[in-house]
């Protein structure tokens, strides 16, 4: 019996199996199947499925990893006229069981390795083992048992990762797969080619790799998970298996291309997409070893697979934007506004997709209000179209550009928060029947930042906000804790969606009424101060910092409490008592004369023991300078020293790559942060292609990379430079601990993973705190452990305290034989040639501000060991070049002579460069008073972050800055010994000769209005 004239997916597949009967259809490491064999094994399985009396489009789960068994299962389900539901074998059993029950699935195809996992849950299981299946085929290739469903038949269910954490089942239709795989404008694979099958079976792209290959007469080459994630193994398989076509997400593409720049040079067609393809990534592929074609694909699962494509060229790279191209045959795309009106070219709006590939909607949600599957009379009439939620525009060349997502996300205190996720967590508490999260923008004249508000409808009158908050915090990150408002019901729009705009209006009205109502009880002094500082009233148990407050708000709060209530608080007190209720109790206790104890001091002692249990792994320390190595792992690249170190590393011929760990959400953001830092200091280094931007966070487990990526870089790196740190002059030790203390511990562990690597840790000469004034120390050698100076450190900033404890940890590691080297720069000023300095550091804030005010403080005993940034970088790299210098500490200051320069000498030099009398010395208290009057009158002022350390007294009525007097001279013996082979560094220009250059830079900052005085 011959197939019908226009067969559906099952008919097309069986026709191709007959046409290419002797050709190889699929192969893995162990075996291969011809088209005829694959067809026969699928028919064998169809007979077993039919024994279960399946109805058309019944859902059948497939629990086996990518490979021949899974492909046989999918073809058999299609032949049977049922619907494939691919499952991820890596998911927990309970998750899989719940998912299957939610879909009302009773039949499960699985392999031997997974057959036991769901046995106890009552599913009808068929164990699929292609090796034991019969391969006899009848002459008609089994058309009598193949269900020739029409193209409208639902062939697959794929789950999208919903924003609330509950995946949505998308009904993929056979016509979409046929249109995609047999597209006339987009032909990814040709007859006889080898198509790498590396996608997870639950990802729609896996259909392109398998069914797409079979419909074109190609061979699907199965690549296991370990191969996909290991660039070396992947490249080997590409070469050995002569793979012609390959799909890789940009993330995988970046990992592979960074390790092996010519990885794809033998590939005919390289497909990528699913996330943003950066111009930098495309450049790497096209320059070093380009495939014949590099295609960028775009499209959601709701439109089967991909809907648009673009052949990436160097012209795209030079423009800095990689287009998502034009629609494939059978698809149409428009850009619309909020009213679904089509926008002209160039305007940004939501992308709406129509055509043959649009899915049949979400299972059981086809009529749900607000569904993204809609009908538009002016676009693809009488057909369902899909609102993607993506923003895009048509450019002047007639190509689509992806702009971003319309996800309901907000940024609060620099943290991106998804409102649906907050609502899902609230609902998961079981204490509320409805919840809606919104962002509240406070008065623009206030210093306060936006507020995360959640309106909830409790399940009973007995449920209070405190109970809900406690349940929420068990499952949610601390920074995502919203301000809770209990309401009777949630307002709805005409389309039955939650009216978030109305919620914001109602909240603002309630706050306004509380403030203006004559019947409302007047605010207490603390309530009034909090409302003024943070821009809105807060509940008695609302956490200031969770509600949008920052360290600057804490400083302002301390000042207002002193002004209005006459009580002197310390910043650390606010962090330890961050609610109105706690603050009121604290103030009452202080008024009674009770002594407050800083709990941060109690954190130091246990932290001083960190690192003592580390032992070096076996093996020799990697020599990073050899030709086969040269792979640098760098943190803190966006900082002042870090960006100059990067510039110097790129110039070194022995440096092959520099992996820069940057706190960012993705590689694109990481690249942007590095480029911004380069631009800030006017740096245009050559060999930018050596930069590898890695989004991560050294304060987190596995550096925020995930276990497999972490292990990859632990093996990849030849040397580590750890310069990253959290820097804040206000926040206490506890706020710096995660990044600066535990972060260093993480980096040392990273250096001691896979293979032993040297780690060079950048500390500071300030780690000893105000020890000169408090202990009488006049000289500190390089091998002095800061642990003996912790008594003085209690009067320093939380940042310095964290750096001191971190260095103690570094010494602990050194004592155990780990290859840790400590570099302590003095106070780092600008470049010796340009004079350009760090615009965010202490002196770049204080000096221009003093010039603007016309006065500077009388601090005659203040001095510091100043040093130029380029000396620090060159000395650090020289020391790092030889293993004989490892395991010690080096003070990176002027190696000869007195590097100490007094504050008076600096200001006298500045005064000499100004008209007479325009900059005078005044008593410290008078100077602070001038600073206060100017900083608190402005929402933005460079001195604002410094005010607590400038005005808050901590000992004998002295502030932290006043206690920095009589700084000891720091030794340089080890530094001089290390630099003997580098006379240019031993004879580097002294700071006194460079000081006029730095003064000109500071004065230029003042003239440009940097101080806003």
How do the strands and helices of this protein lay out in sequence?
Elements lengths: L8 H11 L4 E4 L4 E3 H16 L8 E5 L4 H12 L3 E4 L6 H10 L4 E4 L13 E4 L26 E7 L7 E6 H8 L12 E4 L7 H5 L1 H6 L2 E4 L2 H5 L1 H10 L4 E3 L2 H10 L9 E5 L5 H10 L4 E6 L9 E4 L2 H6 L6 E2 L3 E6 L12 E7 L17 E2 L10 E10 L5 E6 L3 E4 L2 E4 H10 L3 E9 L10 E8 L6 H9 L9 E4 L13 H17 L8 H10 L16 H15 L5 H6 L3 H12 L8 H8 L23 E5 L4 H12 L5 E6 L4 H14 L10 E5 L11 H10 L2 E4 L10 H19 L6 E5 L8 H5 L3 E2 L9 H4 L4 H18 L4 E6 L1 E3 L12 H12 L1 E3 L5 E6 H12 L8 E4 L7 E3 H10 L7 E3 L1 H12 L11 H5 L1 E3 L2 E2 L9 E2 L2 H6 L4 H4 L4 H17 L6
Parallel strand pairs: 1-10, 3-4, 3-5, 5-6, 9-10, 11-12, 12-13, 24-25, 26-27, 26-29, 27-28, 29-30, 30-32, 31-41, 32-36, 33-35, 34-38
Antiparallel strand pairs: 1-2, 7-8, 13-14, 14-15, 16-17, 17-19, 18-19, 19-20, 21-22, 23-24, 35-37, 39-40
Helix pairs in contact: 1-2, 2-3, 9-10, 16-17, 21-29, 24-27, 28-35
Question: What is the gist of this entry?
Answer:
The protein is an alpha/beta fold.
The amount of helix comes to 25-40%
Distance between the ends: 90 Å
Going by CATH, what is the homologous superfamily of the domain at 631-1007? NAD(P)-binding Rossmann-like Domain
* Largest beta-sheet details: 7 strands, parallel
Widest beta sheet: strand line-up: 28-27-26-29-30-32-36
Description:
It is a single chain. Helices cover 35% and strands 18% of the residues. The chain is α/β, with parallel strands linked by helices and 1013 residues long. Among the domains are: 1-179, ANL, N-terminal domain (Rossmann fold, 3-Layer(aba) Sandwich); 328-392, Luciferase, Domain 3 (Luciferase, domain 3, Roll); 631-1007, NAD(P)-binding Rossmann-like Domain (Rossmann fold), CATH 3.40.50.720. It has a 7-stranded parallel beta sheet, with helices on both faces. Strands 11-12-13-14-15 form a 5-stranded mixed beta sheet, covered by helices on one side. Strands 16, 17, 18, 19 and 20 form a 5-stranded antiparallel beta sheet that branches. It is globular. Mean pLDDT is 85; it is low at 1-5, 137-141 and 444-448.
């Amino acid at each position: 019996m011959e197939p019908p004239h226009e067969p559906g997916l099952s008919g097309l597949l069986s026709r191709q199996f007959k046409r290419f009967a002797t050709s190889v259809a699929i192969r893995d490491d162990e075996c291969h199947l011809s088209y005829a064999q694959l067809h026969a094994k699928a028919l064998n399985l169809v007979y077993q499925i039919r024994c279960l009396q399946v109805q058309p489009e019944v859902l059948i789960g497939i629990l086996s990893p990518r490979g021949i068994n899974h492909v046989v299962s999918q073809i058999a389900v299609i032949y049977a006229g049922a619907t494939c539901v691919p499952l991820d074998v890596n998911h927990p059993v309970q998750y899989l069981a719940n998912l299957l029950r939610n879909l009302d699935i009773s039949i499960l195809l699985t392999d031997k390795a997974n057959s036991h996992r769901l046995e106890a849950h009552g599913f009808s299981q068929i164990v699929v083992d292609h090796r034991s299946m019969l391969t006899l085929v009848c002459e008609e290739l089994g058309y009598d048992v193949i269900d020739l469903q029409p193209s409208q038949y639902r062939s697959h269910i794929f789950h999208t990762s919903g924003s609330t954490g509950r995946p949505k089942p998308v009904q993929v239709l056979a016509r979409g797969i046929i249109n995609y795989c047999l597209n006339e404008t987009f032909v990814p694979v040709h007859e006889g080619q080898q198509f790498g099958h590396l996608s997870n079976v639950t990802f729609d792209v896996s259909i392109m790799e398998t069914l797409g290959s079979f419909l074109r007469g190609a061979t699907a080459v199965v690549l296991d998970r370990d191969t996909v994630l290991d660039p070396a193994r992947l490249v080997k398989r590409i070469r050995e298996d002569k793979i012609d076509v390959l799909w890789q997400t940009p993330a995988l593409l970046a990992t592979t291309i960074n390790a092996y720049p010519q990885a794809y040079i033998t590939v005919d067609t390289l497909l990528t997409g699913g996330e943003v393809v950066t111009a930098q990534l495309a450049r790497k592929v096209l320059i070093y070893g380009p495939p014949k074609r590099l295609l960028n694909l775009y499209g959601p699962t709701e439109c089967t697979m991909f809907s648009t494509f673009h052949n990436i060229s160097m012209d795209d790279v030079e423009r800095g934007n990689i287009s998502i191209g034009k629609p494939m045959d059978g698809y149409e795309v428009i850009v619309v506004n909020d009213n679904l009106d089509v926008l002209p070219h160039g305007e940004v709006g939501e992308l709406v997709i129509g055509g043959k590939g649009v899915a049949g909607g979400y299972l059981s949600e086809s009529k749900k209000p607000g569904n993204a599957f809609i009908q538009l009379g002016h676009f693809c009439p009488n057909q369902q179209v899909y609102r993607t939620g993506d923003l895009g525009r048509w450019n002047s060349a007639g190509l689509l550009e992806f702009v971003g997502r319309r996800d309901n996300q907000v940024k609060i205190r620099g943290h991106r928060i998804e409102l649906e996720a907050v609502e899902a967590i609230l609902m998961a508490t079981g204490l509320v029947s409805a919840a809606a999260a919104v962002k509240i923008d406070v008065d623009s004249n206030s210093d306060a930042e936006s507020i995360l508000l959640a309106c909830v409808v409790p399940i009973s009158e007995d449920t209070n906000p405190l109970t809900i908050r406690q349940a929420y915090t068990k499952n949610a990150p601390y920074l995502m804790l919203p301000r809770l408002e209990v309401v009777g019901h949630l307002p709805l729009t005409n389309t039955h969606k939650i009216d978030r705009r109305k919620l914001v209006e109602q909240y603002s009205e309630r706050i306004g009424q509380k403030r203006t109502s004559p019947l409302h009880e007047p605010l207490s002094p603390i309530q009034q101060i909090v409302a003024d500082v943070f821009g809105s009233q807060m509940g008695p148990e609302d956490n200031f910092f969770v509600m949008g407050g920052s360290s600057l708000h804490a400083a302002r709060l301390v000042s207002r409490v002193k002004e209005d209530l006459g009580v002197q608080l310390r910043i650390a007190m606010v962090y330890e008592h961050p609610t109105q209720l706690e603050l009121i109790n604290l103030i009452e206790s202080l008024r009674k004369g009770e002594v407050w104890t800083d709990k941060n001091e109690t954190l130091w002692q246990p932290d001083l023991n960190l690192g003592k249990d580390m032992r070096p792994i076996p093996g020799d320390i990697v020599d990073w300078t050899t030709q086969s190595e040269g792979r640098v792992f760098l943190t803190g690249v966006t900082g002042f020293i870090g960006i100059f170190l990067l510039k110097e590393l790129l110039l070194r011929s022995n440096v092959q790559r520099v992996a820069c760990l940057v706190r960012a959400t993705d590689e694109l953001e990481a690249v942007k942060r590095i480029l911004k830092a380069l631009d800030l200091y006017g740096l245009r280094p050559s060999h930018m292609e050596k930069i590898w931007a890695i989004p991560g966070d050294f304060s987190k487990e596995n550096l925020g990379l995930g276990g497999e990526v972490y292990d990859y870089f632990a093996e990849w790196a030849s040397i580590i430079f750890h310069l990253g740190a959290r820097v804040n002059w206000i926040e206490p030790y506890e706020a710096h601990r995660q990044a600066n203390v535990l972060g260093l511990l993480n980096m040392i562990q990273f250096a001691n993973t896979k293979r032993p690597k040297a780690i060079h840790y950048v500390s500071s000469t300030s780690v000893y705190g105000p020890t000169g004034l408090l202990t009488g120390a006049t000289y500190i050698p390089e091998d002095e452990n800061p642990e003996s100076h912790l008594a003085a450190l209690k009067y320093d900033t939380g940042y310095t305290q964290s750096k001191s404890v971190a260095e103690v940890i570094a010494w602990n590691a050194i004592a155990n034989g780990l290859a840790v080297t400590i570099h302590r720069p003095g106070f780092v000023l600008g470049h010796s040639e340009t004079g350009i300095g760090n615009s965010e550091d202490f002196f770049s804030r204080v000096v221009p501000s003093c010039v603007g005010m016309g006065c500077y403080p009388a601090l005659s005993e203040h001095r510091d060991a100043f040093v130029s940034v380029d000396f620090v970088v060159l000395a650090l790299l020289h020391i790092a070049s030889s293993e004989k210098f490892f395991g010690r500490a080096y003070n990176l200051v002027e190696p000869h002579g007195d590097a100490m320069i007094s504050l008076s000498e600096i200001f006298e030099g500045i005064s000499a460069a100004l008209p007479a009398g325009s900059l005078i010395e005044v008593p410290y208290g008078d100077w602070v008073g001038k600073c206060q009057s100017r900083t608190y009158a402005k929402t933005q002022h460079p001195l604002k972050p410094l005010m607590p350390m400038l005005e808050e007294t901590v000992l004998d009525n002295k502030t932290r800055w006043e206690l920095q007097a009589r700084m000891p001279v720091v030794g340089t013996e080890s530094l001089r010994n290390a630099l003997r082979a580098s006379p240019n560094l031993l004879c580097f220009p002294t700071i006194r000769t460079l000081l006029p250059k730095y003064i000109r830079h500071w004065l230029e900052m003042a003239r440009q209005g940097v101080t806003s005085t």
